[in-house]
Amino acid sequence: MADHYETLGVSRDATPDEIKKAYRRLARELHPDVNPSEEAAERFKDVTHAYDVLSDPNERQRYDLGGGPGGAGGFGDIFETFFGGFGAGQRGPRSRAERGDDAMIRVDVELRDVIFGAQREVTINTAVLCGTCQGSCCQPGTTPVVCDICRGTGQVQRQVRSLFGNVVTAHPCGSCQGYGSVIEHPCVECGGKGRVRERRTLNLDIPSGIDTGTRLQMRGGGEVGPAGGPNGDLFIEFRVMHHDVFSREDNDLLATLRVSMTDAILGAEATIDCLDGPATVEVPAGAQSGDVIVLRGRGIQGLRSTMRGDLKVAVQVATPTKLSNREKDLVRQIAALRNDEAPSLGEFQQGFFGKIRDRFFRAGS
Prior knowledge:
The chain is α+β, with helices and mostly antiparallel strands. The chain has nine helices and 15 strands. The strands form six sheets. Strands 10-11-15-14 form a four-stranded mixed β-sheet. Helix 2 (16-30) packs antiparallel against helix 3 (38-54). The chain is rod-shaped and about 125 Å long.
């Protein structure tokens, strides 16, 4: 079998563009619609096969390394004979317009925004429709021209000899890459792709009740496809930022309230600043460290729900460390009046903070 480079009339170091030009020149001369002779048909088959091999970088490298004049050859040709070389079931030219890629961004939100939800502007760098050609890929005032090799079909036929005789198979046209048309004057703005990269701003609705790792899907919010194809989807992944005062358990908010020893003994009323405004907390007389006070409905509104969790406030009694002599005398008088028992060992209990955690979870149940 003739050398592929000789078949196309190019040198072995020919560039891809030189190979393409040689193929188009020969194809115009030998195409069955132009030259119906059997000799021309045979040469057209050889020219097309040579171009199929040399226009593919991997096939060309394999051929140059001695992979045989037929490229992959063997079972590949037989497989193509039965199943076609242009994609199962594909008919006619393929569209330049393809669906765009999906995109994902990560958004940090404050715990305050999670209570009722919020709106946020986010900026993303993505592919958008080319404003110059509007996705046509052509310079304004021009249009794609019908491929003069495949005559707009996007495919060329090739006769293959097999164990079962000569079989005609269809393959992508090497001149137009299967599109059926050629863009002779590509848009200078997008380079003939029909899209450009651009930073754009989105108005994002942050739902209530989201947590770190929650993902939302915005259909059609991703990148526009080549040649103005439909947009992919945009996925937003959230991360809820740490808060110095409040933490979260499901839709409940947790906090700790420092209470003086006297307020714990006598009881008190305290106003605290919650994430959604002030709230009043009633500290009962005799409050102990680890007691939990529940404020109903002051937690987080659930995802896709109108119900809110609770705010659970754990009491932390602050024992004074510096007392005046007068204060010490008064405490001694109280101790004498109460006649409390001396410190002693009792039944084993789990750690103090573990007890607080359990009380948080049991509170209000």
